[in-house]
Amino acid sequence: MHIKQDEDFFWEGVDQGQLLAQKCTDCQTLRHPPLPRCAQCGSQAWESAELSGRGRVLTSIESIHPGRRDAEPRSVCLIDLAEGLRMVSMVTSGDISNGEQVELAFEIIDGHKLPVFRSAGDSQ
User: Fold this and answer.
1) pLDDT in tens, 37-75
2) Are residues 27 and 85 in the same domain?
3) Are residues 72 and 90 in the same domain?
4) What are the φ/ψ torsions at residue 91 (nearest 5 degrees)?
5) Based on the domain organization, do 46 and 63 belong to the same domain?
6) I need a labelling partner for 34 at 20 to 30 A (CA). Which of 11, 43, 51, 74 fits?
């Protein structure tokens, strides 16, 4: 038997190609990462809300696994999403700079579909 976790809806959305956040149905506050209660009003009532997938890079690091190096450098970034939430994710574009506009993409990494970001200029 699978016990439902607060973040299950997020991963179900990823499987469907959507970036989802929780939205408090009492005060309308968006939240990510998922939590059992709204930090604004304390309500446990929420619904899922699809996010645009647009944002900008606040800061980034090159992540280097100590035991198993990646074939390509992995940029891990703090993304300031257009809806006012922040999310840590990988950026798949080459060189990325703070303030750069990014958009959502999905990639299969180690057998798992993950939300990643790419430079918004890469899709034009």
Assistant:
1) 999 999 999 999 999 999 999 999 888 777 777 677 778
2) no
3) yes
4) -115, 125
5) no
6) 74
Note down the domain range covering 75: 54-123
For residues 29 and 71, membership in a common domain is answered with no
Q: How far apart are CA 104 and CA 109, in angstroms?
A: 15
Angle at 119 between CA 66 and CA 61, to 5 degrees: 25
3 within domain boundaries: no
CA distance 120 to 67: 32
pTM confidence score: 0.85
Residue 124 has pLDDT above 60, yes or no: no
Q: b/e map of 9-30 (b: 16 or more CB within 10 Å)?
A: bbbebbeeebbbbbbbeeeeeb
* Counted domains in the chain: 2
Residue 123 predicted with pLDDT over 60: no
pLDDT band, residue 2 (cuts 50/70/90)? low
Distance CA(99)–CA(57), nearest Å, equals: 5
